[in-house]
Amino acid sequence: MAIKSAHTAILLTVAATPATAGISCPADKIEAVELISKHETLQQSNPGILDRGHGRVEVKHYFSRKGDEYVLENGENRLPDVDAFAATGNLSNRWEPYVKETWRTGTEAYRSYRNEKGENNKRSKIMPRDHNPAVAIESVKPGNNTSTVAGFNCRKVQKTLPNGTTISTCNLKIYGLNQPLGGQKLYKDGSHQTTQVLSLEQLCVEESLFKVPDRNWK
Hints:
mainly beta
């Protein structure tokens, strides 16, 4: 069963240089930055054990000049097929689709998760995030510790956590907010998460994209 977001963005792309302070939008649109990426999680499992932890998702992340954010995730998780196992006795898996939406505004975050089983809506408090409305996409000078992602220079970062997990990313600032562009998280057991950026651009969007809908927030 396909699960789709009820929130549809109407976009108008405007040509922009890699370091941009602002663009001109029609009266019924507002300036924003759109970051589209693909994420994949692959978890190591033992032979004969039903898979868990496999997932893939396309993420559309919108940043407004005011500092609000909207994130739309269309993905699917690989889960044990319990019904098939009960019917045949054979181990198998299936892909379960889901949609996750997140709105961040001020010191509040709203997260909505929907799959075949239903919907879960949560509201929570968050810390204020860095914000600079003057520069939409930061201009990073190329150097030994930089890379190019989606046509933009970013700063390469690699660190190892105390548990042995290695994180590699490439960061730049979007409206002053430090944002990773792609990368990989590698665990000691060989499991890994990868992120691939598909596009990064300034554009004009409907202001309603950043408006939190009326849902049963808890």
